[in-house]
Amino acid sequence: MSPTALVAEDEAPQRRELCRMLASRWPELQIVAECSDGSAAIAALHAHRPTVAFLDIRMAGASGLEVARQACNMAHVVFTTAYEQHAIEAFEVEAVDYLLKPVTVERLDRTLQRLRTRLSEAPKDIGTVLEAIRLGFRCARSADIPWITASLGNSIKLIATEDVLFFRADEGCTWVVTRLEKASIRTPLKELLPALNPDVFWQIHRSVIVRVSAICAVRRNELGKLEIVLHDSEEALPVSQAFRWRFRGM
Amino acid sequence: MHRLIGPGGPAFGLFLWLPLVVACAWPVAVLWERRAEERHQREIAGLQRHRQETNLKLLVLQAQIEPHFLFNTLASLRALLHEDATRAEAMVDALVRHLRAVLPVVRTDSAASTLSDQLVICASYLDIMANRMEGRLAYVIDVPQPLQQTPFRPLMLLTLVENAVKHGIEPKVGSGRIRIEAERIMDTAGFAVAVRVIDNGVGLSRSVGHGLGLRNVREQLALCYGNRAALSLVSPPEGGTIACLQIPLDGFELI
């Protein structure tokens, strides 16, 4: 039985080029599916059960990494990527096959040679490398958040974190308040806090995170409770017992 | 005690002292003036340094060519070489135009850049992407002629267009459209130009995000126009994203 292949690549010229190169360098390999997005690739994977899957990492629908998770025990996976420093390092460590775009004939030959010798074996389990890449992407992302996409009426608006005066949780949603507007996000304060710079934003109440530089004064209200007045907002924010230490000596 | 003043009495004393006072005060005054002059020079030098630093900062903010974009474009080109020499040629031309506009080492002075120049850069980028995505991307540029001559800082608009492709159209299954339009508006501070990049892609997702390119645009706006310029991104309920750059038209007369 001749080996079969799936090629998933969202840019048509590149997809045709890889198929053309495969046909010339490995004529016995039968290309059973050419897919232009990740969801189509997952469907084709289950429908055709190819021996090899060539997967572009960045695709609409589902990324190549997500498709690979489905392919794990079914097909030998070869990733294609133009530049994905983090993923390439992980591939090198785990000896996972990948092709750098533009693909050269020499490099393709080396990969195909390796594939031919592996055809009789079960596909390599690449779960660890996929997990490592996923965690790596997440780490790279959680450093800090310059932008927040929040709901404003029926629209969604990008708000610069630099413009935020305070975040206030209220009945399952979090209000993001700037000098000019008040929008909402679904991210709870608990998840938001680690992503904010602790020198810039302080939590002062279970339901409030405030920009330190926006604080104008701390005062006691008519009930004797500590609260904060801001430079650019009418809203007074409560300071709870647990966070009172921040204002000791003020 | 009076004898000490001198034989000529108070008048003689005055004659003696006046030149003395002048003789002493003259160098002091000259020194004073020189000091002031030096201080002035230092201030000018300080301002020049600040200006240079700002320019340098702007240059760093503008330097951007993504390896991902370059390698993918070359990969498509490799395919077109076998399939369609005419398209390959058009792609090389567009890529060269793009690199000339974007690479910091070959870029010409940015001070004179106009909206029209920036639209040309955006068009070459969109031509490359439309060629690569083959039918999945179409675009329209609709900016009235008089507005095209507006002075416009380089590469800010390109960042918005790149974002529309990368985060709007590319993640969308199927095809997408991008429209660039501009209009003159009046706000509280005077006349301004509003340039919008509108796409019908997947829209902003309700989460927290990165957008390094957008952060650069914001910093550039702050450095050049203080708080008189604005950048906004909104996904309306019907989908897609509208990115809008608003820049003051200080004394710039429309012909």
Description of the structure:
The complex is a heterodimer of chains A (250) and B (255). Chain A is an alpha/beta fold and 250 residues long. Chain A has helices at 12-25, 38-48, 64-71, 85-94, 105-118, 127-141, 189-192, and strands spanning 4-8, 30-35, 52-56, 76-81, 98-100, 147-152, 155-160, 164-170, 173-178, 182-185, 201-205, 208-211, 215-220, 226-230, 237-238. Chain A has two domains: 4-141, Rossmann fold (3-Layer(aba) Sandwich), CATH 3.40.50; 147-247, Beta Barrel (OB fold (Dihydrolipoamide Acetyltransferase, E2P)). Chain A is built from seven helices and 15 strands. In chain A, the strands form four sheets. A five-stranded parallel beta sheet of chain A has the order 2-1-3-4-5, sandwiched between helices. A five-stranded antiparallel beta sheet of chain A has the order 10-9-8-12-11, with no helix packed on it. In chain A, helix 3 links the parallel strand 3 and strand 4. In chain A, 38% of the residues are buried. The model of chain A has no long low-confidence stretch (mean pLDDT 89). By secondary structure, chain B is α+β, with helices and mostly antiparallel strands. Chain B has two domains: 2-52; 63-248, Histidine kinase-like ATPase, C-terminal domain (Heat Shock Protein 90), CATH 3.30.565. In chain B, 55% of the residues lie in helices and 17% in strands. Chain B has seven helices and six strands. In chain B, strands 1-2-3-6-5 form a five-stranded mixed beta sheet, with helices on one face. In chain B, helix 1 runs antiparallel to helix 7 (212-225) and helix 6 (156-169) runs antiparallel to helix 7.
Please specify the SSE layout and strand pairing.
The complex is a heterodimer of chains A (250) and B (255).
Chain A: E1 4-8, H1 12-25, E2 30-35, H2 38-48, E3 52-56, H3 64-71, E4 76-81, H4 85-94, E5 98-100, H5 105-118, H6 127-141, E6 147-152, E7 155-160, E8 164-170, E9 173-178, E10 182-185, H7 189-192, E11 201-205, E12 208-211, E13 215-220, E14 226-230, E15 237-238
Parallel strand pairs in A: 1-2, 1-3, 3-4, 4-5
Antiparallel strand pairs in A: 6-7, 8-9, 8-12, 9-10, 11-12, 13-14, 14-15
Helix pairs in contact in A: 2-3, 4-6
Chain B: H1 9-62, H2 67-83, H3 85-102, H4 115-133, E1 137-142, H5 145-148, H6 156-169, E2 176-187, E3 190-199, E4 208-209, H7 212-225, E5 230-235, E6 241-248
Parallel strand pairs in B: 1-2
Antiparallel strand pairs in B: 2-3, 3-6, 5-6
Helix pairs in contact in B: 1-7, 2-3, 2-4, 3-4, 4-6, 6-7
